[in-house]
What we know:
By secondary structure, this protein is α/β, with parallel strands linked by helices. Helices cover 38% and strands 18% of the residues. It has helices at 16-28, 67-85, 104-110, 121-128, 130-144, 155-158, 206-215, 242-250, 272-279, 312-322, 326-340, 342-358, and strands at 2-7, 33-38, 43-46, 51-54, 92-96, 112-117, 149-152, 168-170, 192-196, 220-224, 234-238, 254-256, 268-269, 284-286, 289-290, 300-302. The mean pLDDT is 92.
Amino acid sequence: MKILYLINYNLNENSGVVNKIKQQVIQWRKEHEVYIVSIKNFTIYNSEFNIYYKEKELPRFLNKSGRVFTFIKLIYSAYRLPVLIDRLNFDIIYMRYLLYMPFLRKVMKQYKVIMEINSDDILEYKLNSKMTYYYNLITRDKTLIHINGFVCVSYELKDKFIKYGKPIRIIANGINVEEYKYYLEMKNKKPRLVFIGSPHQSWHGIDKIEKMAEYFNRFEFYIIGVSKKNTNNISYLGYLPNQEATKIISKCDVGIGTLSLYKTALEEASPLKTRQYFACALPVIYAYKDSDIEGEKDFYLELENGENNMDYSQIENFVKKVYGESVYREKAREFAVDKLDYGKKEKVRIAFFDRILNAK
Length: 360
């Protein structure tokens, strides 16, 4: 199979999205031919992420910022897209959600296209920009009616795209498990709890972690990604490269996931942070429905997704149960290997590609 991955990112960017794109391609290229087309910098990359073709002498407005120039860039990107992809021979296009672009429909009518849905686009744009929100709301169906299939990261998102009557596959976010070092035996003098996130993201629930630390003053807390003054039992470590963050995580006893997802009006998620915890063999506490977890398991604690979900008694019992017990760490690691690894998830995605490609 020959796959064209259409993106709106520069592959040199250091971001979670770009890392996910690369991890997907790494799996696909084992058995298939892959090209990545970026409409952000008008570059075609091969499956080794080397430049195959790059447009020269781009218009100056592409370097300008502002809402008006954002929409001009959208139109120009869609206009140049056919010229870019005409250089390639491929069977199917895979893309993440994009705002409607006037010339994009021409491409979609010519090829089989699968779109990856990672968030509620209507809600996301509503929170960030009124202008973009209304533009997306008015035009989104002009793009979506031409999609041949959707890959959603959650069942909750699937429900929002059923109306288009196209095949949908649920594939939650994964991780390259082999990259993460883990220890089954952990002998910390006190329970160590770790959280990795970003500042100014209220739905992460860092305020709840801070209150948890006040209540459990015998526990040690490590917060990666946030810079603040340390307290008696909280170490704020700021931004750390993934390798350094993993060193901290792997030596902790419990990982903490998102605790206030309700602030985004969502119930379901599959955050990278919890995949990192499980890969490092950590039992996890979180407050939402995880798209990859079915049934009751004893290596995680799922709290309610609501304002008053900090059940300290429940949290304390869970931490005491898993602290120093290698059996729960082993179960967490096995879960990551069996359910979360990119190798297995991308086989499911490729099978969906085959289904769409062979559909009449």
